[in-house]
Specification:
six-stranded parallel sheet
C-alpha cells in the first residue's frame, strides 16, 4: 500500500447537481481528484433545499438554521470533499473565470437536460478550443439527442421511463416507483466508470472526448434479463411482488418488533428442509405441497403464511442468525438510521465521522470500494455555498481581489443567494 490516491493528479470542474451527477463527482473526489463544484447564486444546487420561503430538506435536529442551504443532509452527503465556487456564467468576468478553470482541468461534467449546455455556449467544441484534451461528461436524464433529450428528469421519472416500474408492484396492483430513486446513484456510478475509461484512453492517446451517458439507457441495464426475455419471447414479464422464478420461499417476512422485517431466499430443496427444521416443522419438507420448487411456487400464499408464523416469534436479527447458520440467504431489512451502527459496516470502517462547520459532526458513507495500493478517502465536509470563491479565483487562477470584489458586488459570485438578500 502506497497511501497515494488514484486520481490525485486529476482536476474536475463540474456543474453537476442533485444526486446522479453529484454522486459521479463525489466518487472522483473520494479517489483524490480535485473537484471544483460550480453553482450560481440564482441557481444553486436544488439539493441545498431551495430558496426561502419555499425550502425543503433534512436538517440537523430538524432545524434549517439561518443558512439552510449549507445544512441540508442531501447536498452534504454527496458533495463531501469538493470545493465550492459560485459563478454566474452570463457574467463576462465569471464566464472568463470558468473558461480559465476549464483550461487547467482534466474533466468537465454536468447532468442538466440536453438544452442547457448549448444554451450556455458550453458545447464540447467550445470547451475543446479552450483545452484540446478536455473530457466532457454529459449525464442528462434522456441523453443529449432524441425527442426526449430536452426533458428534465430524476429517479422518480427515469424508473418508469426505463421500464423498471413496470416490474415493481404486486400481482394485482399497478406499477409503482421504488421511492428511493436508485437509478440516480446507479447512473452516477456508471458516470464515474465512464470517466475512468476516458482518462485511461487519454493517458494512452492524448485525446479527450465527449461522453453522452443517458440515465434512462443506463438504467435499463438494471432489468436486462427482463428486456432479453421480452426480446426473445415477445412476452412481457409481469409484476410479482418479491416472488422469484428460481427460489421459494423468497420474500420479506414480518418479525417481532415495530415494523421489523427479514428477507429470506431459499435456493434449493435442501435449504428448504433446513428452514423447516429451524421452524420446528420438519414435516413440511416432505409435504406434497412444498417438497419441491414447483410445489412451493404453486402454494406460495400458504408457504408465506407458514414462514411468517415463525418469523413473527423472533426478531429479525435472530432469524438472520439462525438462517445464516444453516447457509440460507437471509438478512434484516434495516432502516437507514440503523446502518451506521451495523457491526459489519463498523468493522470495515465504512462510515466515517465528518465535522461540517454548519452542522457539527455526523457519520458519512465512506468510499464505495477498497483499493489495496491506492486507497480512497473521504476528503472532508461538503462545501458551503461559495466557500472557496477566493481560494479558487484569486489563489488558483490569479484573478485580482479587486476584480473578485466587483463580481461579488454585482452578484456574479458570492455566498448568499440573491433571493435571500
Amino acid at each position: 500500500m502506497t497511501g497515494r490516491l488514484p486520481l490525485e493528479h486529476v482536476r474536475a470542474t463540474v456543474l453537476t447537481q442533485a444526486w446522479s451527477g453529484a454522486f459521479t463527482t463525489r466518487l472522483l473526489a473520494d479517489m483524490g481528484a480535485e473537484v471544483i463544484q460550480i453553482e450560481s447564486l440564482e441557481r444553486m444546487d436544488p439539493w441545498r433545499g431551495g430558496y426561502s420561503p419555499r425550502r425543503s430538506g433534512v436538517y440537523p435536529n430538524g432545524d434549517p438554521g439561518q443558512r439552510h442551504y449549507n445544512r441540508n443532509a442531501l447536498y452534504n452527503s454527496v458533495n463531501a470533499g469538493k470545493l465550492g465556487v459560485t459563478l454566474d456564467l452570463n457574467d463576462e468576468d465569471a464566464r472568463g473565470a470558468f473558461f480559465e478553470l476549464v483550461s487547467i482541468s482534466d474533466i468537465v461534467a454536468e447532468n442538466f437536460s440536453a438544452r442547457v449546455l448549448p444554451n450556455l455556449g458550453l458545447t464540447y467544441p467550445v470547451l475543446r478550443e479552450v483545452n484540446p484534451s478536455i473530457i466532457l461528461l454529459r449525464l442528462p436524464a434522456f441523453g443529449s439527442a432524441g425527442p426526449y433529450s430536452t426533458y428534465m428528469g430524476n429517479g422518480g421519472t427515469i424508473e418508469p421511463m426505463s421500464g423498471i416500474s413496470s416490474l415493481l408492484g404486486y400481482e394485482d396492483g399497478p406499477p409503482i416507483i421504488s421511492g428511493i430513486m436508485h437509478t440516480d446513484p446507479f447512473s452516477g456510478a456508471m458516470g464515474a466508470a465512464a470517466l475512468l475509461i476516458a482518462l485511461h484512453h487519454r493517458a494512452r492517446t492524448g485525446e479527450g472526448q465527449e461522453i453522452d451517458l443517458s440515465q434512462q439507457e443506463t438504467s435499463i441495464g438494471l432489468i436486462a434479463d427482463s428486456v432479453m426475455r421480452y426480446s426473445m419471447s415477445g412476452s412481457a414479464p409481469s409484476r410479482r411482488g418479491n416472488y422469484s422464478d428460481e427460489m421459494a420461499p423468497h420474500n420479506n417476512y414480518p418479525c417481532k418488533g415495530d415494523d421489523a422485517w427479514v428477507a429470506i431466499a431459499v435456493r434449493s430443496d435442501g435449504e428448504w428442509a433446513a428452514l423447516c427444521e429451524l421452524m420446528g416443522r420438519p414435516d413440511l419438507a416432505s409435504d406434497a405441497r412444498f417438497r419441491d420448487l414447483p410445489g412451493r411456487q404453486a402454494n406460495v400464499r400458504q408457504l408465506d403464511d407458514l414462514v411468517s408464523d415463525w418469523t413473527r416469534r423472533h426478531t429479525a436479527d435472530e432469524v438472520t442468525r439462525l438462517a445464516q447458520g444453516r447457509s440460507i440467504p437471509c438478512a434484516p431489512a434495516y432502516r437507514s438510521d440503523e446502518l451506521p451502527g451495523h457491526p459489519q459496516l463498523a468493522s470495515r470502517g465504512f462510515f466515517q465521522r465528518v465535522t461540517h462547520p454548519d452542522t457539527d459532526e455526523y457519520p458519512y458513507p465512506g468510499v464505495s470500494w477498497r483499493l489495496s495500493r491506492t486507497p480512497g478517502r473521504l476528503g472532508g465536509p461538503a462545501p458551503r455555498l461559495g466557500e472557496h470563491n477566493r481560494a479558487v479565483l484569486e489563489q488558483l487562477l490569479g484573478i485580482s481581489s479587486g476584480l473578485v470584489d466587483g463580481m461579488m458586488a454585482r452578484g456574479a459570485t458570492g455566498d448568499t443567494p440573491e433571493l435571500e438578500d
